[in-house]
Amino acid sequence: MPTPEIEQATAFTAVIGTTPVVIVLPRMRAALIAESGALVTADAWIAALTEHGAQPMRDTDFVGDPAPGWTVTIGRGLTAVRITGPAELGEIYDGSLEADTAWRERVAGLHHIGAGLVVISGTADSMTPDAALEMMETERAVWIRAATELG
Q1: Contact, 55 vs 142, CB < 8 A?
Q2: Is residue 1 over pLDDT 60?
Q3: Separation in Å, CA 26 to CA 94, 105, 120, 149
Q4: Are strands 39-41 and 32-33 parallel, antiparallel or unpaired?
Q5: 133 phi, psi to nearest 5 deg
Q6: What confidence tens digit (pLDDT) does each residue in 58-101 have?
Q7: pTM above 0.70, yes or no
Q8: Residues 119-148: what's their mean pLDDT?
Q9: Residue 133 vs residue 43, higher pLDDT
Q10: CA angle, 10 as apex, 1 and 72 as ends, to 5°?
C-alpha cells in the first residue's frame, strides 16, 4: 500500500506516565480506494503506519525495543525533529519541536541506554493538543518505539 503524502503535520511532546513521547498529527485523513472503486481503508495513514510496525494504542505501557528501520533524529537544541520509518514508508515528519527541560532530559536518558523514543500518531479531528488527547482516549492512535539520534 502506498504511503499517503502529508502536506502538513504538527508534532507535540508529552510525558505519558514516565515515558517521553512525540505525537505527530497529519492535517488530513486519507481514504485508499482500489482500482475497482472498492474502499480499501478509511484511513490510509494509520494503515501505512500499522503495516510498518505501529501498534494500536490501547494502553500506555509502550513495552519493547526500537522497531527496525524507525529513527527519530532530534536536532541540536532539541528544537527540530525528523521522524523516518522503514524505507518503504520513508519520512513521516520533519519540522519544529517544542519540548520542556524534563522531556529533553528523559529523552537523553533513554537515548543513552538505547531505549529509543515512542512516536504516537493517528486520526485526530484537528492539529491541536486537545485533539491529540481525544485521539488517544478514543483509541484512534497507534504507537511505535523508534531509535534516536541526537544532533
Answers
A1: yes
A2: no
A3: 12, 27, 11, 23
A4: antiparallel
A5: -60, -45
A6: 888 899 999 999 999 988 766 789 999 998 888 988 988 888 88
A7: yes
A8: 91
A9: 133
A10: 70
End-to-end CA distance of the chain: 32
| 44 vs 60: CA distance, rounded Å | 24
Residue with cell 528544537: 79
Burial of 125 (0-12, 13-18, 19+ CB in 10 A): middle
* Residue 104 pLDDT greater than 80, yes or no: yes
Residue at 35: amino acid letter: E
How far is CA 105 from each of CA 4, 46, 87, 91, rounded to the nearest angstrom? 33, 30, 30, 25
- Give percent above pLDDT 90 in the chain: 41
Beta-bridge mates of residue 41: 32
Strand partners, 145: 118
**Tell me, what amino acid is at 142?**
V
Q: Which of 12, 52, 7, 10 is nearest to 30 (CA)?
A: 7
Average pLDDT over residues 97-114: 89
Q: Which amino acid is at 64?
A: G
* SS3 assignment, position 87: coil
Residue written as cell 524507525? Answer: 70
